[in-house]
Structures
1.
Amino acid sequence: MQSIGQAAKELLERIQVIRSTTIHSPMNNSNEYEKRQDSSKKTNPDCNKCQDENGYIINENGMQLWKICECVPAKKIRNMMKSSQITDGFRQLTFENFETKGKHSQIEYSFLMATVYANQFETIEKNRHNSFALVGQVGSGKTHLLCAISNYLLSKGVQVIYFPFVEGVNNLKNNFDELEEKTDRLKKARVLFIDDLFKGRDKPTAWQIETMFSIVNYRYLNHLPILLTSEKNFGMLCDIDEALGSRLFEMTRGNRMELVGKQLNFRMTDFE
Ligand SMILES: Nc1ncnc2c1ncn2[C@@H]1O[C@H](COP(=O)(O)OP(=O)(O)OP(=O)(O)O)[C@@H](O)[C@H]1O
Ligand SMILES: [Mg+2]
Ligand SMILES: [Zn+2]
């Protein structure tokens, strides 16, 4: 007779097989099975293999199993891109269309830093200092390069949420009832891209500083990466709020650069 240990082991192995190939067995739930059969009659599906059902039934060892379709990873990336809040225009900003030829060495260097960070992200992410920042000169390509990093990471299936400071804080303020849910999303995203932190002629308000601090501090404590641009350098950020500025400074150790000099303003390149 088979021992209980042996039987349990065999059962566990069977569960493993089912788990690795199925979401659930449709045979165990006939309603669900019928529903899937019906909805598979969809016309013009994006995926002909699964009729946009994300999976299909296969026969394995006499059992009918639900197999996740090969189209699912690409679909996940598309959804992730949609929910990243990166606009269509910013999705076009890549490393390929960033010019370095004949540009100032600071531009070349910031490009190099950004490509290395994007390429080695999976390793860097595990470090204490896993964030990236370009600060300083207006128009020097800070947003372009950080969009290039974000678009690259998204294409690899890494979740990035884009948070443009000015629009972002206004949006949080105008939807007070959703504040907690929205800030929670910014706190917990795998990567958060804060663009143009503390932009504006006026000093940031106490509420803006508090809100940004709670997001940054959560990410600081949980070792979650931030991509940062700001016209203000780290000294200025610390003058606004030392607790916030110094956390960002620490998080970006080895991966930050200040761009200095009006000649770096790409918007003024054909200006005589
Ligand atoms: N080296 C470059 N190659 C190609 N396009 C560039 C380069 N640098 C900047 N640009 C383009 O110039 C414009 C300004 O760049 P970007 O917005 O990235 O600058 P920024 O440093 O973020 O400026 P700001 O401080 O005003 O936000 C964008 O359209 C960007 O795509
Ligand atoms: Mg910018
Ligand atoms: Zn499919």
2.
Amino acid sequence: MHVFCGLKKHKPPTVWLIEHLFPFLPALFLCVFYKVQTHLCVLSLRTFFNMLPIQMVDLQTQYGRLKNEIDTAIQKVLQSAAFIKGPEVAAFETELQDFTGAKHVIACANGTDALQLAFMALKLQPGDEVITPSFSYAALAEVLHLLHLKPVFCEVDAKTFLLDPEQIEKHISPKTKAIAPVHLYGQICDMDAIIAIATKHQLPVVEDTAQAIGAVYTFKNGEKKQAGTMGAIGTTSFFPSKNLGCYGDGGAVFTNDDQLAKQLKMVANHGQPQKYVHEVIGINSRLDTLQAAILQVKLKYLKEFEASRNAVADAYDAVLEGIDGISAPIRNADSTHVFHQYTAVLKDAADQKPLMEYLKSQGIPSMIYYPTPLHKQQAYAQHISMPLTEDLCTRVISLPIHTEMAADQLQHITTTIKAYFKA
Ligand SMILES: Cc1ncc(COP(=O)(O)O)c(C=O)c1O
């Protein structure tokens, strides 16, 4: 009371407060600043830590979503103990026939075997040539070499990175015995042109559709067909990260030709048309029952998975459109895209490694599909020049894409890309 009266008498309270608090003002300011900063920091850390780690493909979250159905399917097989050639294998083959529209589906052990079965069933002979892209995964070239066939590498289209039909004919020789396009990243090659060339030269087409299962091609006459069902034989892989992936290895071969189907089944089963009769040299390539049971569940979701992947791709497209240094993948107007990969192209190859490093530093994985053209791999080396393919390998970058991408993950990826390009 006394002090108060004294104050009132001599100085107004605000002046008193300023005078007495003045020495503490810097400390007070620091406290407030620190509090705000800490809060912001905690907020951003919280955003970061609440966000699930970003993966190229998130199979754990997807399994969590399908757990009940998958676990039930697995239990059923375990209890039946029919691990090989159980009823789920034939059932899955039929369901995949219905899904793809292929007349025959023959399940096998993996996508590489599927390719081997295709060329064995076509009875290609050592030295025969197969036209195929060099900008691709190694499985096809590997199988051709194993069978003593020769891959004749062909350039890809500059926009879609798919086998360029305009380049095919110049590679055709008397030794050419097949054309093997790869529906890379999830969209279908120019099949109108490829089938026209194949028909003209009476060559079978083997479609590698490991990355494009479910994609649909619209022919110039309006007819629609699924990836893998347009050529003589289509092959696919059920590797876990594929759009239709199992929980181990798996693959399948498609054909609409009854004779080829018979041959494919026989080759996949030690060359046996019936037990202990070995008509031709074959291999042992089976999809096991557990994988078939898992695939039966996952096939039901394939269209939904495709839509989720397309939603991620659309979001990436929208952001990349506004950035000068990186371009969104160009879509083939005649094919739907199932976006097995979202592969963007850098304007400047010098950005490939630094961008990957920057993304990594922000918790974002990325991949190069593929860093080395097949004709430059030691195992399949050919002294040829393929400028477009060689250049693409230095400028492509694949971003995370899968069925479980959360909005905050996507936001983090796109913001980080924009930050790198200062866009
Ligand atoms: C285009 C292509 N072909 C073939 C394969 C081989 O499939 P798998 O790993 O099941 O043998 C793959 C797998 O990555 C692929 O991407």
3.
Amino acid sequence: MSADPPPLGALADIAASAACPVCRARFRSAVTCSRCGADLGPLLVLSARAFRLRQKARTLLREGDFRQALGCAVEAECLHATPHGALLRAVCACLA
Ligand SMILES: [Zn+2]
């Protein structure tokens, strides 16, 4: 796992689509759930990795490497599925 802090875009992805896996409270941009106190750090790490994979997929799309882009988009969706990630994966799948 990466020790880097989550990129701001990853936090926006989490805020838009994630909830506490313990109590389902909405994510409130904190490492600890405001309702039940669960440690959300691992969720942040996975979301940050997914965000970076989507960035890489977009770069690969611009470079014309559609199959590698699809691989990155699929891996990102496995780590943290988002509506925008699903759209990116669909675009990659059409071009690959
Ligand atoms: Zn909670």
